[in-house]
Amino acid sequence: MKILKTIEELQDIRKNINSNVGFIPTMGALHDGHISLIKKARLENEIVIVSIFVNPTQFLPGEDLNTYPRKDEADKKICELCKVDYLFMPEISTMYSEEEILIKAPNKSYILEGLARPGHFDGVLQVVLKLFGIVQPTNAYFGKKDAQQLSLITQMVKNLFLPINIIPCEIVRENDGLAMSSRNVYLSNEQRADALLLSKSLYLAASLVAKNERDTSILTNKISEIMKNLDVEYIAIVDREFNEIKTIELNNTIILIVVRFGQTRLLDNIWI
Ligand code: PAF
What is the atom index within ligand 1 of the atom nearest the CA of 25? Predict the structure, then answer.
């Protein structure tokens, strides 16, 4: 595995690659969720490129940019073990100049996650577009856990006619159901135990749908009931375009939950 720091190095290598390139953009602190994306990319592409870049433009003032978990050495080992070909780890000054072309995410980026973090998705799309420009992947891999991010990136690729396949990947969970996230390390033991209610309530909702419940307000109430002692930020049932729906549409519904544990926001969702 080669570690690259500059855009020139990566572009030099890229121009000599004529086979499929699988790309996994990350902010590091790699966990089994990322590893599953890398493994999928490894199976489906001749060349696999991972980037690690904690992107400042997607953090709002007061968020955890400065304390975001950084584990460069462990991450390098993981990438090596997963047989990544190139690991791109640029500095902020490599990725951004003083004056930037800004990306404006569409209106649906200002609901749910975007309501809690206005402007967050502008920063995500800006950095992903830059990374796509540098890496020019054939296939790019994103987890379904960040469902709204995945939907916006898919839309960006379509709207800007980028010749890249966006590959959605399943959520990876701990044995007890907690969705993997780099921010899980912020949880105390007690918060971690309470956090299990997120996946529990989503599984319950999915089992009710399997028993023919289609009314989203009934499902939302059931989820709220399970989480009544937690600081729930939102429970939303949307279609895959992120429009709120009153009736479950099979194969076109996502149930999303966000709960606050102190400063930490935990996201989880299930695709119905
Ligand atoms: O999902 C993430 O880790 C980040 O939002 C991404 C896509 C790497 C952009 O910084």
Answer: 8
β-bridge mates for residue 166, sequence order:
140
Coil, strand or helix at 166: strand
Instruction: State the pTM of this model.
Output: 0.95
Residues with beta carbon inside 6 Å of ligand 1?
Answer: 25-27, 55, 58, 124, 127-128, 146, 149
The CA distance from 77 to 65, in Å, is 23
Angle at 46 between CA 19 and CA 167, to 5 degrees: 95
CA dihedral 75, 78, 84, 89 (to 10 degrees): 0
Which of 31, 36, 149 should be mutated for ligand 1, with most atoms under 8 A from CB? 149
CA 260 to chain CA centroid, nearest Å: 18
Q: pLDDT for 249-266, tens place per residue?
A: 999 999 999 999 998 999
Protein residue closest via CA to atom 2 of ligand 1:
26
Is residue 194 a contact partner of residue 262, using CB atoms and an 8 Å limit? Answer: no
**Model pLDDT for residues 39-76, shown as the tens digit of each residue:** 999 999 999 999 999 999 999 999 999 999 999 999 99
- Which atom of ligand 1 is the closest one to the Cα of 58? 10
Integer Cα distance of 246 and 239 in angstroms: 10
DSSP for 96-123 reads --SS-------GGGGSTHHHHSTTHHHH
Task: List Cβ neighbours of 188 (8 Å cut-off, separation of 6 or more).
Answer: none
DSSP letter assigned to residue 185:
G
> Strand 264-271 and strand 253-261: pairing?
antiparallel
Which residues touch 36 (CB under 8 Å, ≥6 apart)?
Answer: 169, 170, 172
